[in-house]
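This week, study the protein below.
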Amino acid sequence: MPDSPIFTYNQPEENNGYLLWQVSMRWHLLMNQRLRGVGITLTQFSLMAGLYWLDRQGELVTQQRLATYANTDKMMTSKVLQTLESKGFLLRSDNPQDGRAKRLQLTQTGEAVLREAYALVGQVDAGFFQAIEPDSAVFNQLLRQLLAASGG
C-alpha cells in the first residue's frame, strides 16, 4: 500500500467541493423538514416552481422542458411529476404542438400548495442565510459564476 495520502489537504473542510456539499445537504435537509408540513419535498417544490415560472412566461411546458429548465434528471423528473399528478397538484394534457409530449399545468390546488410552500421556503432561507446576509450579493454572484462556468 502506498505511503502517500490520497487527499492533498489535511482536513475535508479545506476542500471547496466538500464544503459546498455539506452546506447543500444541510440546506436540503432543513427545506425538506419544513416542506413536510405541506406534504411536498424540496424536489417537488422546485419542479412546481419551475412549472409555475415557465407557465407564467407563456410557455407550453412539457416534461422535457421542465427537466431542462430545472437541471434535473429526466427519469427522476418523470417520477416526481407522477407523484405530483397523483396528489392532484398538476395535470398532464394533450400538447397541441407535439402529439408525443404532454402539456403540464399546475392545478388550483397545486398553486395553493406552491404558494404555501414558498412562504416556508422563504422562512428557511431567511434563517439559513442570515449568517452571511451582509455578503449575500457577493455570495449570489459567486454562485451564478459557478453555475455559468459549469454549463448551467
Notes: The first helix runs from residue 16 to 35. DSSP finds six helices and two strands in the chain. The radius of gyration is 19 Å. The chain has a mean pLDDT of 95.
